[in-house]
Amino acid sequence: MSRLNNASVAQVTSAAPCGSVAFFPFAAAPVGWLKANGAAISRTTYAALFAAYGTTFGAGDGSTTFNLPDLRGEFLRGLDDGRGIDAGRILGSAQSGDIQSHTHFNILAPQPTGTGDSVPQSSGAAQTQRTSTMAATGGAETRPRNIALLACVKY
């Protein structure tokens, strides 16, 4: 299998409509594509792209520029479009990270009687309830496994 280069990518992606988003294993955008980095770009130079996007991703300076989507470091989520899972979202809007509410339960462990609350055991002997604190684990963010590629916009 031959290695892809900008020329072969341009041939493969020439049919992509203006405004399409694609991911590439390159450090630079292929010919006919711009990095999806939130840049403000000319409304006249990229008139077809402005016609497709308008100010969905930002109005730029408000008269001569508009913004590209900024997909750097982002995971994409499909628009709810009436399904009701992520209702109320607007096309092109961003969401901050979140973890769904959940509960952690105390762990029961045997402890000599005489301290704490008694917990009856099947043998009739009393043991006491002891709660255990779990140490925090993990990193600075919640994320699935992933591979970083360059997000680009067809113009």
> Would you tell me the structural class of the helices and strands?
mainly beta
Provide the helix percentage. Answer: under 10%
Largest sheet: 3 strands, antiparallel
Q: Supply Rg.
A: 27 Å
Number of distinct beta strands:
7
Mean pLDDT: 83
Shape: extended
What's the tally of helices? 2
Instruction: Please write the string of helix (H) and strand (E) elements.
Output: HEEEHEEEE
In order across it, which strands form the biggest sheet?
Answer: 1-7-2
Beta content: 15-25%
Distance between the termini: 29 Å
Contiguous low-pLDDT stretches (5 residues minimum) are none
Write the layout of secondary structure elements.
Elements: H1 6-13, E1 21-24, E2 33-35, E3 40-42, H2 47-53, E4 65-67, E5 118-120, E6 126-128, E7 150-154
Antiparallel strand pairs: 1-7, 2-7, 3-4, 5-6
Written description of the protein model:
This protein has a domain of 55 residues. The mean pLDDT is 83. It is built from 2 helices and 7 strands. The two termini are 29 Å apart. Helix content is 10%, strand content 15%.
